[in-house]
Specification:
single chain; mainly alpha; three-stranded antiparallel sheet
């Protein structure tokens, strides 16, 4: 039946507080390097879980700090350019040095698939370790919400999230927002540094 329990809907709109972000980030220190990198990149880039999990090294240019999600992997069917903050680049470079030469950024340890499919078990562990109840998608919403809260224009955040656009904006050259997207995600990387180190 289609009626959702009332508690479910609230959880959906969940945005983590700064203290909760700090607890989750800290809990990641005790995870495997893959899970640590995966979830920190999810929080730093604000991209969809599936798009991060299925990322291939060929999509990244770590020298210039760009991640291009190809059209066939992006939810709205349009290639999506994600600027990587210095924090994200640092994590990806360090991770690439330790990982074997798989084409996938987050290769699966199981025989089931080439890359990690979903990290439900990891989320359950992180929830237990941090005491913060959250779902994977909440990381994306939290990043978006804190950027908007700090004054990043909604349109720029919507470009970062690669939301499907209609009408006039959809026609606008999608590279036109590269600078704004980069400024916003660089700001967010710095902000995240402050949050996890406990500085206001």
């Amino acid at each position: 039946h289609m009626v959702k329990p009332p508690g479910d809907e609230k959880q959906r709109e969940r945005v983590l507080s700064e203290d909760e972000i700090r607890l989750v980030w800290k809990a990641l220190d005790d995870e495997s390097p893959l899970i640590t990198a995966l979830f920190r990149i999810r929080l730093l880039t604000a991209q969809r879980g599936g798009e991060v999990h299925g990322a291939a090294w060929s999509e990244f240019d770590l020298a210039t700090g760009w991640w291009t999600i190809p059209a066939e992997r992006s939810k709205n069917g349009l290639a999506h350019r994600v600027p990587l903050s210095p924090q994200a680049v640092r994590i990806l470079k360090a991770w690439r040095e330790t990982v074997d030469d798989s084409p996938w950024v987050f290769p699966s340890s199981r025989k089931k698939g080439p890359h990690i499919a979903h990290a439900q078990k990891a989320i359950e562990r992180i929830v237990r370790a941090s005491g913060v109840d959250f779902r994977g998608h909440d990381l994306r919403r939290t990043a978006a919400s804190l950027m908007v809260g700090a004054g990043v224009p909604r349109l720029v955040v919507s470009k970062i999230l690669n939301h499907v656009e209609t009408g006039v904006t959809a026609v606008y050259d999608r590279h036109g927002y590269d600078l704004e997207k980069r400024a916003a995600l660089d700001f967010w990387g710095k902000r995240l540094d402050q949050i996890v180190s406990g500085k206001r």
